[in-house]
Write a structure and sequence with these properties.
The complex is a heterodimer of chains A (about 625) and B (about 80). Chain A has about 625 residues and is an alpha/beta fold. Chain A has 27 helices and ten strands. In chain A, helix 3 links the parallel strand 5 and strand 6. Classes of the chains: A alpha/beta (about 625), B alpha+beta (about 80). Chains A and B meet through helix 3, helix 7, helix 8, helix 13 and strand 10 of A and helix 1, strand 2, strand 3 and strand 4 of B.
Chain lengths: ~625, ~80
């Protein structure tokens, strides 16, 4: 059976391509990667009016077929049939912003010259009309020699017409088409043609409405702009911590109830330990963070969809230039507060390779949500819930301090990296400020849904297997009577080797055990500590909360050192794997592992020694 | 007058662009964003620190660029 024909969506950034993709495919989307590169491949299915299925792929937005950044290279390779295992599309949907024809038609002309069957989606048609532009779609179609459909993706207007035209373009799947390898590359000449075609198709043109500039005169104001940005960031983190509390408590309660039920239902033995502490406790302690991650992504998706994110980059550019980066790096670094993986993937929009490399290397220093469980447990156990005045709690202050430590170190690291391993000319900052847009609920919901499934898949695979493996390592071989199970187990013996390295910075044996599985994912450290102390405390204090138990067993300097360790240590295999894919080799991920572990050891050590000297 | 010296909200048009002053990929991106000799340009906003970068209206788009990059673009202010 033939696979269903491939149709690609192509266009400039900010042409509303993703909204059109969502409108055409709904929630039936698949996010994967192009073989060999880590550019996200977003595809979905849609049915043509006659019922034939078509696979639609959303290509990264680009300004021309001359790629500057890696994601733009994917777009060129796919439409020219050079992307390894990706099929040559049977048709292209070229998406242009109706209110920015001059610029977007230039790329469209290049794409039409490829000779593939194409349809032009004259998108955001309503915005153009509100902007005082009237465009004759038929005249445009005559000038370009291809079918043109006016669409408003966010309102689902023109979608059926677009599908109907696609039905006539897509053949029976037999690939007799070829794309021309000779496309015009003289941008100036293409631009002149684009301008004259756009002029011919424009029936009416009033002055552009100035409302966007009025919004920008506040959003980009030298004083109000940064204040607004700070307020938005504050709101975002506030939401992550307070709104997420209720759903997190619910998940936590569900986990505990499930564990208790299984405990009752199964006879005592290895299988019960495996299911309760390996599966339920291990996976549950990670799934608890789903609400926080979703809230963080909700804000990031919202800031991106409205067009504000680029304004934030604009405001931050000069400060970032101080450490040798550009405002573009702000977006990936902000995403890294949720998780370094999407953050590192977002660096692919940075054209300058040195800038991009530096951003990738410092992204793990941003306090990701996986550190929160570790911070929450340790801070809760060791930092008194005291008010330091003005209604600010000491615990919150310590947490805030850990975020600041991460940010400052990242800036310092960027400064050093840009002068050593990532040395190069200062890159510029050249970005289009997109139009402000009212975000569509559906687009945000689809984005959140995609993130949630990726997170849950990770919890179900990596974290489940690591948790199970740890459970086995800690319980086997069974210690003879009188021997300590933890010391006797395989896990305990491996930890004894780590002890040698981490003893000087104040870590105890149990912490060594916990940081091994935490290599897979930081949050596992919490369930690992819980497992370790459960084995040790067999019976006597098994019911006490983990925090209480730690409080009695760890001196304060040790606990503080553990916090600092987690602020720096690159304990996340997925991040390392993404770095390897993004930098095409092991050199940079190994470099990151080295410098981050060295920083972690030094910072934890310095904290431990200082705290001990101060007699804490 | 250079684009980085152009006062805010003063319409002008691009006279000459010194393409040789920038890296080839930077020059191409500048062209792709609509900068060219003869197009209308107007500086609208500037960054909070050191009044850098600046945001300019070019055609129907608003483009952000650093002052150092804008220095390669000569503009002719429109007669008021």
């Amino acid at each position: 059976m033939n696979p269903s024909p491939l149709v690609a969506l192509v266009g400039n950034p900010n042409a509303g391509k993703s909204a059109l993709f969502n409108a055409l495919t709904g929630a039936r989307q698949k996010v994967g990667n192009y073989p060999g590169v880590t550019v996200e491949r977003k595809s979905g299915r849609l049915a043509l009016p006659d019922g034939r299925p078509v696979e639609l792929v959303d290509l990264p937005g680009t300004y021309s077929l001359d790629p500057v950044s890696p994601d733009e290279a994917v777009t060129r390779d796919v439409v020219m049939g050079k992307q390894g295992r990706e099929r040559l599309p049977a048709a292209l949907v070229i998406v242009v912003d109706a209110s920015n024809l001059d610029n977007h038609l230039r790329f469209a002309l290049q794409l039409i010259a490829l000779g593939l069957p194409v349809v032009l989606a004259l998108n955001m048609y309503d915005m153009a009309e509100r902007d005082g532009l009237k465009i004759d779609a038929e005249a445009l179609s005559r000038e370009l020699g291809v079918p043109v459909v006016a669409t408003v993706a966010v309102r689902k207007r023109g979608i059926e017409e677009l599908k109907a035209v696609l039905g006539t373009l897509v053949g029976n799947g037999a690939t007799t088409i070829r794309s021309s390898q000779h496309v015009p590359t003289d941008i100036a000449a293409l631009q002149r043609r684009a301008r004259s075609i756009s002029l011919a198709a424009t029936v009416e043109e009033h002055g552009a409405r100035r409302w966007m500039h009025r919004v920008d005169s506040i959003a980009l104001h030298p004083i109000f702009g940064p204040l607004l940005l700070a307020a938005l960031m504050f709101l975002m983190f506030q939401a992550v911590f307070s709104w997420a509390q209720a759903p997190m408590d619910m998940i936590d309660a569900g986990k505990t109830a499930l564990g208790a039920a299984v405990e009752k239902a199964l006879p005592e033995g290895f299988l019960r330990t495996l299911i309760v502490s390996g599966v339920i406790e291990g996976v549950g302690s990670v799934v608890v963070f789903l609400p926080q991650i979703l809230i963080l992504f909700f804000f990031i998706l919202l800031l991106e969809a409205t067009g504000y994110m680029v304004r934030a980059a604009f405001l931050m550019d000069r400060l970032m230039a101080g450490v040798g980066l550009s405002g573009r790096a702000f977006i990936p670094l902000l995403s890294s507060f949720a998780c370094a993986i999407p953050g590192i993937m977002a660096t692919r929009t940075i054209d300058d390779p040195k800038d991009r490399l530096t951003t990738i290397l410092i992204a793990p220093l941003m306090t990701c949500s996986a550190r929160l469980p570790v911070y929450a447990v340790i801070i809760g156990a060791f930092i008194p819930a005291r008010d330091v005045g003005l209604g600010i709690g000491l615990q919150g202050l310590v947490l805030f301090g850990l975020y600041i430590v991460g940010i400052l170190t990242a800036m310092l690291a960027a400064f050093v990296l840009r002068r050593t391993v990532a040395k190069g000319a200062h890159s510029g900052f050249l970005m289009e400020l997109p139009k402000y847009q009212w975000p569509s609920v559906r687009d945000i919901a689809i984005g959140l849904w995609t993130r949630a499934t990726i997170f849950l898949k990770r919890a179900g695979t990596i974290i489940l297997s690591v948790s199970l493996a740890l459970c086995v390592l800690l319980n086997l071989p069974k210690a003879p009577a009188g021997e300590n199970q933890l010391e006797y187990s395989i896990g305990g013996r491996i930890a004894s080797v780590i002890d040698v390295i981490v003893k000087p910075i104040g870590f105890n044996h149990e912490m060594s055990v916990a940081i091994i599985p935490a290599m897979a994912a930081r949050e596992v450290a919490v369930s690992a500590l819980a497992q370790v102390y459960a084995i040790q405390g067999e019976g006597e204090d098994a019911d006490r909360a983990l925090g209480d138990r730690l409080h009695g067993k760890w001196p304060l300097p040790t606990a503080l050192a553990f916090l600092m360790w987690f602020a720096y240590a690159p304990q996340c295999m997925s991040t390392i794997a993404v770095m390897r894919r993004e930098t095409n080799g092991w050199k940079w991920p190994l470099f990151a592992l080295g410098y981050l572990f060295a920083l972690a050891w030094l910072a934890a050590g310095a904290t431990f020694w200082t705290a001990t000297a101060l007699g804490l | 007058m250079r684009l980085d010296q152009l006062p805010l909200r003063k319409p002008a048009h691009v006279a000459v662009i010194d393409w040789s002053a920038m890296r080839p990929d930077e020059a191409r991106r500048l062209r792709e964003l609509g900068f060219d000799e003869g197009v209308k340009v107007e500086a609208l906003h500037q960054g909070p620190v050191g009044r850098d970068p600046i945001a300019c209206k070019v055609g129907r788009m608003t483009i952000a660029l650093r002052r150092a990059q804008a220095a390669a673009i000569s503009v002719e202010p429109a007669e008021a």
